[in-house]
Amino acid sequence: MPRKKQTRPFESLPAETVCSILKFALVGIIEDDMMTTAEAKHRVIAGGLPFPHTMASVCRQWRDVVASAPELWTRIFCTMPHKSSHQTLTSQLEKTRGHAVHLTIVNKQNHLEQDEIPGILNCIALNIGRLKSLRICNFYMTGPKLLGCWTTREHLPPLFKLDCPALRILYVDHKVAHSLDHEWLKDNLTNIESVTVPFGDELPCYGPSYLVDYVPKALRAIPRRIPCLTIDGSQFPLQTISEIRREGLEIGAEKVVVHGCMKVLSLVDEYCKTIVIRDCDFIEDPRIKKLPSSNTLEFDGCFGGSLEMARLTPSWDGDTVTAKNCDSLCMKAIFVLLGAPFKDSSCSLWPRVTTLKLVAKGDFTMKFPFKMLKAMISSRREAAGQENLGKDDTELDGMGFKGVRPIMVLHVHGGPGLLRKEREWFKEQVRDFVWDGKKR
Fold it and tell me: Which percentage of the chain shows pLDDT scores above 70?
């Protein structure tokens, strides 16, 4: 009796469904290219091939889907130097058929041959108007020449237009940023959503004179009031910040993200709406005495040491605090700054906060001092006074209330399980209470 041909489940999916799945996967890959540390090895996903070549090798149906969907070819990851970079870029740009392009260019060596830069420019220049995301990294001394050539028209035809109306995400290191033509930035960042300027591990080898001279230029190259500005300041020296402040320079955007270095916050202006502190030791950095004014303060992946020897002094005047995937010591520090009793005293340095959100995403396990959370909520209610507990922020602002406000919103997502008795207590103390335990 002849065997029936076995069909794999993914082979029975409609072509439209397969295309939708691959588009969804592509969004995450592009986000990783633009938001995390881009390395040359990130060009390939599996099997030594870049996306979507890997998807095309699954079966004949998927190969046909990939070949007929130009949107799946819009992620272009270029490594330099590379023998076939020109051929690869040309081929993939043709396959995009006019769709917006997400381009990452990563240098694998400290120095490039001079003829390689014009080669890359000639390959991409005719499509520069389609760039939606652009990341240039690890170029050191050749980086300014690479992107500077675009913005100063070097090596390009005299009537060639350098407009990038589709550009939404720009990631350039500080050396590239300060060399850009500022008029080009002004004209082409009109619709920008996010700009990232990293100050990485290579900084110390240039010395203080380089930093004081070029870091301000890099920051000045970023227009103010863009939706999101990220400063990766893991190697940002304290003496450089002092020099920049003496020059009266401030940085700002609707949302400011600092990664790996809280001291960069001293350069942020007083007009941003959201401050995100990412992957920082919140306890061990005592240099921040006052956090910049904003509505929201978000901690993402932060951690801390012992509170016993720390001096928790950063005051803040915002109303919403979010802690996402932060360790228990960081959470403890946040509770103390909100007014939890500590060392036989209770003093809130963040008196206007009325909303607290604690979030665990992915495989992260949320742990925090449960009793301290309850003590903080009780302490703030007592400090606010019984007569003010029923008032909202608008009413308190209207009466010119300057004291400590009660926690009115407490949302915990992905936290530990909560007993019914404890849940009832929180419901009595907090007006808007949500506690979603992590599913096992």
Answer: 70
Q: How many residues comprise the chain?
A: 440
Q: Could you give the residue ranges of the DSSP H alpha helices within 14-140? A: 15-35, 53-56, 60-67, 85-96, 116-124
CA–CA separation, 106 vs 85, rounded Å?
12
Please give the residue that has the higher pLDDT: either 157 or 101.
101
CA nearest neighbour of 276 among 252, 259, 253: 259
DSSP labels for 156-183? S-TT-----TT--EEEE-HHHHHHS-HH
CA-to-CA dists, residue 422 to 418, 425, 433, angstroms:
6, 5, 12
How far apart (Å, rounded) are the C-alpha atoms in residues 301 and 363? 13
- CA dihedral defined by 95, 97, 102, 107, rounded to 10 degrees? 50
Pairing assessment for the beta strands 194-198 and 169-172 based on DSSP bridges: parallel
Q: How far apart are CA 403 and CA 330, in angstroms?
A: 25
Dihedral class, residue 111 (left if φ above 0, else alpha if ψ from -120 to 50, else beta): beta
pLDDT-based confidence at 277, cuts 50/70/90? very high
How many whole angstroms separate alpha carbon 224 and alpha carbon 277? 19
Q: What is the tens place of the pLDDT at every residue in 87-114?
A: 777 788 888 888 888 888 777 665 555 5
Encoded tokens for 216: 């301000």
Pairwise CA distance, residues 335 & 348, whole Å: 9
Distance CA 270, CA 375 (A): 31
Q: pLDDT digits over 287-340, tens only?
A: 677 888 999 999 999 988 766 555 667 889 999 999 999 999 899 989 989 988
Contacts of the segment 85-93: beta carbons below 8 A, 24+ positions apart: 85/119, 85/120, 85/123, 86/119, 86/120, 86/123, 89/120, 89/123, 89/124, 90/123, 93/123, 93/124, 93/127
DSSP state of 366: P
AA letter at 90: T
**The amino acid at 294:** S
**DSSP 3-state percent helix, strand, coil across the chain (nearest 5):** 40, 20, 40
Q: How far apart (Å, rounded) are the C-alpha atoms in residues 336 and 369?
A: 11
Q: At 103, is the secondary structure helix, strand, or coil?
A: strand
